[in-house]
Amino acid sequence: MILVLPDDQSAGIPRFPLQPAEDDDAMPMIQADIRRGRTPQQCDQLMRDLTRIVHEVSGAPMDTIAGVIRELAGPATYEAGEPSPEYVPGEGGIDLAGRAELNARRKTAGQGKEA
């Protein structure tokens, strides 16, 4: 599916909502690359939420929206130019390893704020 963005000439940026192009056979495809370790329920919820958002923003019918989740090893993904740690699940699905890595980067950068 190709989404056509009406131009906002005054600001030089596209306006919302997005307008689906005239293509009855269009099928939006969601692709999510995440670090491995989430539960099947977390992956299902992620895809349900992303599908709902694509539907709301694009107007595409729910039954035409497809998706795929690719789970990658932590070191195969990068944050701030550095390999990511493996996902370590915490309460409510919080990524403990990712949070610790972010806090360390912030401390090193002098921001002092913890996630």
How would you explain this protein's 3D organization?
The structure is a single chain. With 115 residues, the protein is α+β, with helices and mostly antiparallel strands. It is 29% helix and 23% strand. It has a two-stranded antiparallel sheet with strand order 1-4. The chain has helices at residues 40-58, 96-109; strands at residues 3-4, 7-8, 13-14, 19-20, 29-35, 66-72, 78-79, 82-83. The longest helix is centred in the middle third of the chain and has 19 residues, at 40-58. The chain is elongated, with a radius of gyration of 18 Å. The chain contains 2 helices and 8 strands, in the order βββββαβββα. The chain folds into 2 domains: 29-72, Macrophage Migration Inhibitory Factor (2-Layer Sandwich), CATH 3.30.429; 75-115, no CATH class. Mean pLDDT is 80; it is low at 1-11. A hairpin with a 4-residue loop joins strand 2 (7-8) and strand 3.
